């Protein structure tokens, strides 16, 4: 049983859900303090957990891309477990912006035995209920939507046969994380139900977040940047598993302060079910350990982001040092990031404006001693975009990594990006997979959202820009 809350960092959960956090501690939950995201947004958190893979490891499923198809349920843990006699459930609210509907083509067929997507699409009128004001937005009848999903999840945990349930609650934390507090007492009740009903005898129970806040005012601070990368991950093992494999609990406890990822959760799930053959055995080039490791086995404390499959932009273990404004690369790195933002919208320039760099917040350089995963040459998250920018520098190590935070107009679009710099050829490589926008774009890209959703964070529609003052 996995209960996931959108945009929920470890520290954010402690602040806004204090009763639930205490209930987890009282239940003996192991809190994973080194749980690190591996990419931007919900898909980068959920896909590895449910498949053991990244989206690039699977057939093309993004909207408007060549040879793109619907998402194949056969790649997901639901279908895999069905072959072993499990009843499966996948519950997710806010289906109009669903994990596999917003940027992807949706599933080719029902991914799990119990799936609420069609019901919630109809109940919300494909999102119209959400956009028509706040009245009753968060409820189904007289029941909070999160409560409805919890109730459905509780029913699944009461099934007599083997079962697996992944529930993703979005509406009370995605736009305004402060609202999650409204679910604190109800989550306590859910946790206590699992604890005192006897279900923990044979249930692996996880309460987690996909990532921290991505667009709030907090996210623009250093604290928010770290919290985004460290979501909540609380794990409670079945009593039977602890009895038969006491070393599993010891390993989990020891791994609580080790670098871990969503890939590890997938491997842990199938390990706990006695199905280790379902784990993904992919090994990052140059590594001597699998990318996904079971938390029920010892994980080396020396594990690095590179070996765990975490790009340097998302790694909280990396050491970054400020670049002075007087350094030429301060300006060059910022220009590289700004040029990339405009280059990716070049093909839709008839709809999207050419943004302008208005402010450089900071530029940082990665310590040369850090071990990290380098960019996949030619295979970036958007499938095609790489940008090369000439820079004038003195002799340096052959490869360096820079990170910049910039603000661009129109509007106030704040971007953070990590760039690979080749000193010998004096150019930057900028990848979509390591650029994030940390201010909400709202309806800025409405003119291309349906046709090019992967460009939403970059595009400001010309028809909207023409209505702004001083444009």
UniProtKB/TrEMBL annotation:
Gene3D superfamilies in alphabetical order: Alkaline Phosphatase, subunit A
CDD domains noted in UniProt: ALP_like
A GO-annotated cellular component: extracellular space
Transmembrane region(s): none
Any matching Pfam family: DUF229
Protein's UniProt name: Sulfatase N-terminal domain-containing protein
Originating organism: Papilio machaon (Old World swallowtail butterfly)
């Amino acid at each position: 049983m996995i209960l996931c809350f959108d945009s929920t960092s470890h520290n954010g959960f402690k602040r806004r859900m204090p009763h639930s956090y205490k209930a987890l501690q009282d239940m003996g939950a192991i809190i994973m303090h080194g749980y690190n995201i591996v990419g931007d947004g919900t898909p980068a958190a959920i896909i590895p957990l449910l498949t053991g893979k990244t989206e690039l490891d699977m057939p093309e499923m993004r909207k408007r891309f060549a040879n793109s198809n619907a998402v194949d349920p056969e790649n997901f843990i639901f279908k895999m477990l069905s072959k072993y006699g499990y009843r499966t459930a996948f519950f997710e609210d806010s289906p109009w912006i669903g994990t596999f509907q917003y940027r992807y083509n949706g599933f080719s067929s029902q991914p799990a035995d119990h799936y609420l997507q069609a019901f919630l699409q109809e109940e919300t009128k494909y999102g119209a209920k959400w956009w028509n004001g706040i009245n009753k937005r968060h409820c189904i009848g007289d029941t909070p939507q999160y409560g409805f999903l919890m109730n459905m999840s509780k029913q699944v945990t009461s099934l007599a046969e083997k079962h697996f349930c992944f529930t993703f609650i979005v509406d009370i934390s995605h736009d305004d994380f402060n609202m999650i507090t409204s679910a604190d007492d109800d989550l306590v009740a859910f946790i206590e139900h699992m604890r005192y009903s006897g279900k923990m005898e044979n249930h692996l129970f996880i309460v987690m977040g996909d990532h921290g806040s991505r667009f709030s005012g907090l996210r623009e601070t250093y604290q928010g940047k770290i919290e985004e990368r460290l979501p909540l991950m609380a794990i409670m093992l079945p009593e039977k598993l602890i009895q038969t494999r006491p070393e599993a609990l010891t390993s989990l406890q020891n791994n609580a302060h080790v670098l871990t990822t969503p890939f590890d959760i997938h491997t842990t799930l199938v390990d706990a079910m006695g199905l280790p053959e379902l784990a993904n055995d992919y090994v990052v080039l140059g590594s001597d350990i699998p990318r996904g490791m079971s938390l029920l086995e010892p994980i080396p404390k020396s594990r690095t982001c590179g070996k765990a499959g975490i790009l340097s932009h998302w790694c909280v273990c990396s050491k970054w040092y400020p670049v002075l404004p007087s350094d030429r690369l301060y300006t060059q790195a910022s220009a590289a990031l700004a040029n990339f933002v405009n280059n990716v919208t070049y093909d839709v320039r008839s709809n999207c404006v050419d943004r302008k760099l208005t402010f450089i917040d900071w530029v940082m350089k990665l310590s040369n001693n850090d071990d990290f995963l380098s960019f996949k040459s030619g295979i970036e998250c958007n499938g095609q975009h790489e940008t090369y920018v000439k820079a004038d520098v003195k002799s340096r190590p052959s490869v360096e990594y820079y990170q910049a935070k910039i603000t661009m107009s129109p509007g106030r679009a704040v971007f953070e990006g990590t760039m690979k710099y080749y000193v010998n050829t004096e150019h930057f490589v900028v990848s979509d997979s390591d650029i994030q926008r940390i201010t909400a774009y709202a309806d800025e890209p409405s003119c291309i959202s349906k046709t090019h959703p992967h460009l939403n964070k970059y595009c400001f529609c010309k028809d909207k820009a023409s209505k702004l003052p001083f444009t």
